[in-house]
Amino acid sequence: MAVPIAVLDCDLLLHGRGHKTLDRFDIETVSDEFLLTTFGFPREFIYYLVELLGDTLSRRTQRSRAISPDVQILAALGFYTTGSFQTRMGDAIGISQASMSRCVSNVTKALVEKASEFIGFTRDDASKQQSKEEFYRVAGMPNVMGVVDCAHIAIKAPNAEDLSFVNKKGFHSINCQLVCDSRGFLLSAETHWPGSLQDNVVFQQSAVSKFFEDQENHEGWLLGDNQYPLKKWLMTPLQYPETPSDYRYNMAHAATHEIVDRTFRAIQTRFRCLDGSKGYLQYSPEKCAHIILACCVLHNVSLQSGLDAWTFERTETPEQTEEGCEHMDTLDSEAFQIRQELILNHFS
Predict the structure, then answer these.
(1) Any idea which of 169-183, 210-224, 297-311, 317-331 has the lowest mean pLDDT?
(2) How would you list the strands of the sheet with 173-180, edge to edge?
(3) Pair 154, 77 in one domain
(4) Are residues 161 and 307 in the same domain?
(5) Are 103 and 75 in contact (CB under 8 A)?
(6) What is the Cα–Cα distance from 95 to 142, expressed in whole angstroms?
(7) How confident is the model at residue 4 (pLDDT cuts 50, 70, 90)?
(8) Cα-Cα-Cα-Cα dihedral of 293, 156, 152, 87, to 10°?
(9) 143 with 249, same domain?
(10) Would you give the DSSP letter of residue 27?
(11) How far is CA 29 from CA 35, 68, 213, in A?
(12) Distance of alpha carbon 309 from alpha carbon 296, whole angstroms
């Protein structure tokens, strides 16, 4: 009986069924420079990822011809850091473009499953205090636990009728809300919001908002730009500064808040699949959200491994937001008082 050509696999044609694992690429045979320039990360970090994800990736491929975990990880890193399934990338590690795509899916799923281990607010008191001190050294803003902002990642249009992912600039995107600490380490990454949602709407529906609203006592506050609502635990800029103290507060706020914008730029520069230079992500919104989250996990893992968050940072400054959402008639009076005391005690 003839086998339909649609089910044939390029790797099967090349290697046959006799191979339990396809030995396409030996990481030991290439230079450190080749690994860094081709896959975006140094050798030791790649070894660590193999150790971290190896069991999961082996289980995912155990019922078919297994592509080794290290080759799967290299394929995924190649895509994340270049944004394309180039033939030469597949040739470098000995797999077809179709297999490249499957490897990216496997590694993305494995990284998403690790997200809660590497991204979260649950840290020890010493780490929290150290981060507050580092924030304070930036511009004198005290008790900052993190900085929050949103950014849009361009995606393929889901379908002609679905306008929920069309943002105010007219292209389809996912609106991602990140919170990071003073080093650019992500404390929260929500990468699934439709691009049509404004930042303050995303924030109000976010897990971060619920997390802090549910707390009775707050050890400090997040910093958000003028798209965010003023809260007891979220300090925003003054929309209409009047006194020298007001202006000093706004300047310190902007300098400190810039850390999250730098983090966005660093992530998009390191992971070119997110920065738009190769076009939009060619997947469903759900899969795009998972790819973005996987890159966020890799960002944190790399920081924990001692890599610099800003090594690949772009130099372009982010676009300024157009208008704020602070209205005196809906302002939280207690939050307003907290901000006034902050200005009086630290910026007068």
Answers:
(1) 317-331
(2) 186-194, 173-180, 144-154, 221-223, 234-235
(3) no
(4) yes
(5) yes
(6) 52
(7) very low
(8) 60
(9) yes
(10) G
(11) 11, 16, 53
(12) 12
Intra-chain end-to-end CA distance of the chain, in Å: 85
- If asked whether residues 131 and 56 sit together in one domain, one would say no
Q: Per-residue DSSP letters for 238-270? A: -SS--SHHHHHHHHHHHHHHHHHHHHHHHHHHH
The structure tokens 């939050």 sit at 335
Instruction: Quote the pLDDT of residue 20.
Output: 37
- Asked whether residue 306 carries a pLDDT value surpassing 70, the answer given is yes
- CB neighbours of 343 closer than 8 A, spacing ≥ 6? 245, 246, 249
Give dist(CA 278, CA 54) in Å, integer: 29
Q: Where are the beta strands (DSSP E) in the chain?
A: 21-22, 66-67, 144-154, 173-180, 186-194, 221-223, 234-235
- For residues 274 and 86, what is the distance between their CA atoms, to the nearest angstrom? 16
Q: How many Cβ atoms from other residues are within 10 Å of residue 49's Cβ?
A: 25
Bridge partners of 189, per DSSP, are: 178
pTM over 0.85: yes
Residue 341: CB partners within 8 Å, gap ≥ 6?
none
Domain that holds residue 153: 120-346
Can you read off the two tokens belonging to residue 252? 């310190």
Distance between CA atoms of 117 and 296, rounded to whole angstroms? 12
Listed in sequence order, the residues at least 6 apart from 55 whose beta carbon sits closer than 8 Å to its beta carbon are none
Which residue is listed with tokens 């005391």? 341
Q: Is the dihedral of CA 149, 116, 38, 274 positive or negative?
A: negative
Does 178 lie in the same domain as 320?
yes
* Residue after which a domain boundary falls, among 75, 95, 113: 113
Q: Which two tokens mark 172?
A: 């389809």
Q: Can you say how many angstroms the Cα of residue 77 is from the centroid of all Cα atoms in its chain?
A: 15
The C-alpha atoms of residue 226 and residue 308 are separated, in whole angstroms, by: 29
In single-letter form, the type of residue at position 103 comes to: C
Number of domain units in the chain:
2
User: Considering only CA atoms, which of 278, 252, 270, 198 is closest in space to residue 42?
Assistant: 270
* 12/146 same-domain check: no
Q: List the structure tokens of 173.
A: 């995107």
